[in-house]
Design brief:
heterodimer, A: 304 residues, mainly alpha, 10 helices, B: 112 residues, 2 strands, elongated
Amino acid sequence: MTRRRWLLRCYPRAWRECYGDDVLAYLQDTYGPHLPVGAALSLVGGGLRERAHGVRLGSSGDSADDRLRGGVLYVLVAWALLVVAGCGFAKMSEQFDATLPGGHAMANDSYALVEVTAVLGGLVVLVGVVVALPAFLRLLATDGWSAVRRHIVRASVATTMTTVATVGLVGWAQHLTFVQRNGTDSVYAAAFLAWVGLVVTAIALWTIAAVAVGGRLTLSRPLLLTEGALAGVVALAVLVITAAGLVWMVAMSASGSTFYVADGPVPQLVVIGTVMLAVLAVTVAGVRQIGCAAPAVIRALRDP
Amino acid sequence: MTADPALRRASDPPVLILTSLAGGPKHGHALAKDIEQFSGVALGPGSLYGAITRLEERGLIEALPSDDRRRPYRMTAAGSQALAEAMADMRRVADVGTRRLARGTVPRRRLA
């Protein structure tokens, strides 16, 4: 029974209070003392879908408008994850060209493509934010602030802490040599890792705040479709960045660069690769949801 | 076509649940058993209660008071209307398919 209650924790608390006892009785009636793995997985999936529904990421029973909005928010989450992976990539590839034996066009070009696409993708995300801004102001003007205040305050506190830590770290780094900054000073390395944790926390909290706000905005169908189209462009940018990043890694390997030897970036590559897999999975989920919901939203727009 | 996208296909969990509740109120276990009996679809607990939650949210079903931990559910008038519309849509498609098959424009597989 403890395992079943633990599985129910996949669901939001409010849902458990309403349906929890009923589900436990159902599981007992249907499966007896031994819960099959398939049923346990079904509960985990159902719980995650319910949580996604709670923040209006959209699920199969929702309206097409909500599913489209959910798809856009998935892409936004993917972009936030990409920013985390991108920070790691930028740090790992710092001064990579110095390790190249000579001019190597493919490595340089693919790296430039990653940078340019990241900037363009960031601009498209900003356009999406600007498009939603009037709806956000309307939300604040009504009673929406109380619902999102907690998220925004937490993210602001994390950002303030990150800013203070950044100033301190930059001041410290100026008194260290390049070699000390890159591993030989263990105290600095520990402080740097703590700073990375703060940056990731701040990005995560702002993403949660953005999803909480985005799920509550009242957007017209034309605006929803605009956001869907922008999300499609961002998804394309994610794909280009992933492909160009892979090309860069292969080109670096083929160039005879000393980049992959010495201390080696393999642990960072594993972390960045794992985050990138998550980015791709969330992007595909978002694009799929947008693609399935958009035709119904367009139909509803033409024939209200 | 019906305005409700969750009630398009006969195998959609909301359609199966409403169809089952059209025969009278039931709790979760009885619902799942009945659905498996008439449709052959075995809904997992996640799918079953996900669909129950959405249907209750939209006022298509409601929970009845119970002293037990088991909550019986029944279809509301709105649920009855939504199911009728979904059935009419499915019947229209089924009728077209049946008529076209009867006309014999599609070659049928010859039985051995």
